[in-house]
Specification:
mainly alpha, 8 helices, cell membrane, LeuE-type, LysE family translocator, transmembrane, membrane
Length: 205
């Protein structure tokens, strides 16, 4: 199982990455303002399912490479570390604004909302790259992988759901807060710093 030191790094890292304004969070806020929080939860369910599938598939693929091709895994580890550092720097340089686009005109049937959330999560190449880079360093191959992965996925889903609910319920007030001063900039910088730290840790481990 995961120890508390690993969880102490993983939980704040993923939470700050989740809460930083992005596609899913902006979608949650837009739908929350236009169709209400209860109906927006159908989109959230689809997004959470998609994220869980991506996480499990990413770890399963990397674990297989780790066990069968250790040299290739070392190369992937360095590439993953570099990608995390790149993402961290990109978050530092990200524009400090959040905009509501045409997503507020999406179909509001349950099926459409669920599909929107699921496709947003499952078809995002950056999401796959992120999971492949971030999750494997927290898996200890000396122990059973399934319990460790289950705990990490549970943390990811709880973090994603909490952040989407904050955006969906915050509505206009949250949008005004995020666009006020340098609030988004500092959120991006905190998340970016954590990403760079994890990338360096991965490269040195």
């Amino acid at each position: 199982m995961l120890d508390f030191a690993v969880l102490g790094v993983f939980i704040p890292t993923f939470f700050f990455v989740s809460i930083t304004p992005g596609m899913c969070m902006t979608l949650a806020m837009t739908l929350g303002m236009s169709i209400g929080v209860r109906r927006t939860m159908w989109m959230m369910i689809g997004e959470l399912l998609g994220v869980a599938i991506v996480a499990v598939a990413a770890v399963a693929g990397v674990a297989s490479i780790m066990l069968n091709y250790p040299t290739l895994f070392s190369v992937l580890k360095w590439l993953g570390a570099g990608y995390l550092v790149y993402i961290g720097v990109a978050m530092w340089r990200a524009k400090a604004t959040i905009k509501l686009g045409a997503d507020s005109k999406l179909k509001v049937s349950r099926q459409a909302l669920f599909s929107q959330g699921f496709i947003t999560a499952i078809a995002n190449p950056k999401g796959w790259a992120f999971m492949i880079s971030l999750l494997p360093p927290f898996i200890n191959i000396d122990y059973a992988i399934a319990p460790q992965l289950s705990m990490l996925v549970a943390i990811i889903m709880l973090s994603e759901f909490t952040c989407m609910m904050l955006y969906a319920t915050g509505g206009k007030s949250l949008r005004l807060f995020l666009n006020q001063g340098d609030n988004i900039k500092w959120m991006n910088r905190i998340a970016g710093s954590l990403m760079v730290g994890v990338g360096v840790w991965l490269a040195l481990s």
